[in-house]
Design brief:
Elements lengths: L8 H18 L9 E2 L1 E2 L5 E3 L2 E6 L4 E2 L4 E10 L5 E9 L4 E6 L4 E2 L3 E8 L4 E10 L8 E9 L8 E9 L14 H29 L1
Parallel strand pairs: 5-13
Antiparallel strand pairs: 1-13, 2-3, 3-4, 4-6, 6-11, 7-10, 7-12, 8-11, 9-10, 12-13
Pfam family, one: DUF11
InterPro entries: DUF11_rpt, Ig-like_fold, OmcB-like_DUF11
Keywords: Membrane, Transmembrane, Transmembrane helix
């Protein structure tokens, strides 16, 4: 990940992942769609410390090859402007980021924006990704987003969008074709040709006699 402040991108990613994991452990319950961490309002948006955040891709179920558009909304519910808020979305395994608006910085594991939000207003961030395939044993596709105040490593608020993975039928085309039917077919054709030659030869002999 490109870090405009000159810091280590790998270290920032590790901090973000640890923070998301800590929040997931604190609030382990997951709704069928869109788990939210923090205090919830009536619409399911996470709200805490003067900020609310939500993430949604408008899907309940995803298939391999789907292109997904994530919409993230961060609202400043406080009475003071928020400057330099860092918003980081996790990119799950098997997902490729295609585009990110508003100068979003992308890596294999995250998308990161910097936003300033006046009091009482909100900002909407979007990105497009392609879901290729999930690791074996994965039942859901989950992407979390967290907001961090300037200079802080602990997120203020986080939210997660979680979608069911569609069942994948067996890849018949990738299964090797058994060799024995071909051998049997060749043998049968050879026997049939031999019988035909013998019968034709006998008929010709009878005619000649």
């Amino acid at each position: 990940m490109f870090d405009p402040d000159g810091g280590g991108a790998g270290a920032a990613d590790r901090v973000d992942r640890r923070a998301a994991a800590a929040l997931a452990a604190r609030w382990p319950a997951a709704a069928p769609r869109g788990r939210r961490t923090g205090v919830h309002d009536k619409e399911g948006t996470a709200v805490t410390e003067g900020l609310s955040i939500s993430i949604d891709n408008a899907h309940d179920q995803v298939h391999g090859g789907d292109e997904l558009a994530y919409k993230i909304t961060v609202r400043n519910t406080g009475s003071s402007d928020v400057e330099g808020l860092r918003v980081t979305q996790s990119v799950p395994p098997g997902v490729r980021v295609v585009t990110a608006d508003q100068d979003g910085r992308t890596s294999e594991t995250s998308v990161q924006w910097t936003a300033s939000i006046p009091a009482g207003e909100d900002v909407t961030l979007t990105d497009k990704v392609v879901f290729d395939a999930a690791p074996d044993g994965t039942a859901r596709l989950a992407s979390s987003v967290c907001a961090y105040r300037t200079g802080e490593t602990r997120p203020v608020v986080c939210s997660t969008d979680s979608d069911q993975l569609a069942a994948t039928p067996p890849a018949l085309a990738k299964s090797p074709m058994p060799w024995w039917p071909l051998v049997v077919a060749v043998v049968v054709l050879a026997l049939a040709a031999g019988v035909f030659v013998v019968l034709r030869r006998r008929r010709r002999d009878r005619v000649a006699g």
